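Listing S7. Sequence submitted for prediction.
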Amino acid sequence: MKNLLRIMIFLSIILITFFYFDSSINENDILEAPQKADPLPAQEIIENPLAIERPGEGISVYIGESSEEWVDDYGQPARIEPSAFGYEWWIYNQSYSNYKMVGVKDQKVVQVYTAGTATDAAPYSIGQTIEDLYRFTIIEDEVTVKYGTNIYTFSLSAEDRETRLLVSFEDIYAQLYIDEEDGMLEAVRFMDAETLIRHQPYDMMYVGNLLVPITPSSALQASIDKANAKQVVDLTNVYRLHHQQKPLIVNAAVTMLAEKHSRNVARQNFSSEEIEVESLQERLENSRIVYEQAAENTASQYYDAAEAVHGWINSEDHRDTLYSSQFNQIGVGVFGKYYTQSFLKQEPTKAEKQ
């Protein structure tokens, strides 16, 4: 009888342990974007006289040129999507090795982002080591930008110098996105002065006036959220291929759950009401979604999809999830500056097996 009791107690402990530490599901903590101080007015900013010659080849040469010239060379985009900063995103995802996002405003190219290993991002190349970047690039802690009669200075933190560099050329700017663990260049964003100032990706001081913020309507913001979600999926698959992992298939049902989760997390942070935020396991079970493995990355306060994904790949737990070979499906939902990326492993259907 005593032995039977001991066995029952032992089995109960095993069941409780399995319940609380179920390895089939993993929900990472929310990743907050690096905090920036509010823009600070300054009495005087000394302009940096150093002017690096603008690249003469590669995608950066299109900054400031007409979108027609871009189309003549690269063709029509797969998608055109809105942004929160006054430009449209032209998405080129027909080939992940040539993945590009082009910011177009008033028929002019104002920025080009690429994570494609086959894209000409001269003077840089995706996969380049950070040691090589520092060897051939002038990296400054502060970068001064003149726009009209206003002057802005961006200050890079110690973390920025390891993961997100800013380089000034004659009249354009480059953000270099580094994978800190691998020490490799994962993506490049070239842009004009106005775009950099509107993004304000680093601490900033200014002399003159700040640009008037753009506030999208609620309908436009909903479209921006959908666009950001699609871009997160694209970039997740681009980065997975960088690390020899298979791309993920979008699961529509999980996408809906991710959208609702981002909305609830945002409302929980800003509403006086008590908003219940269910765990990933609860959401999947309540929606009767069958899975073998599941995991989730969340993030907040990133100004666009590229920044959010870059944040995840430089956070150990989120990175492990994003690059995991366990999953074959993904659902992404965005609400403002809140991002949810849900991963799933499901057995393929009979049709998919065939």
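Caption to Listing S7: primary sequence and predicted structure tokens for the chain studied. DSSP finds eleven helices and 17 strands in the chain. The two ends are 54 Å apart (CA to CA).
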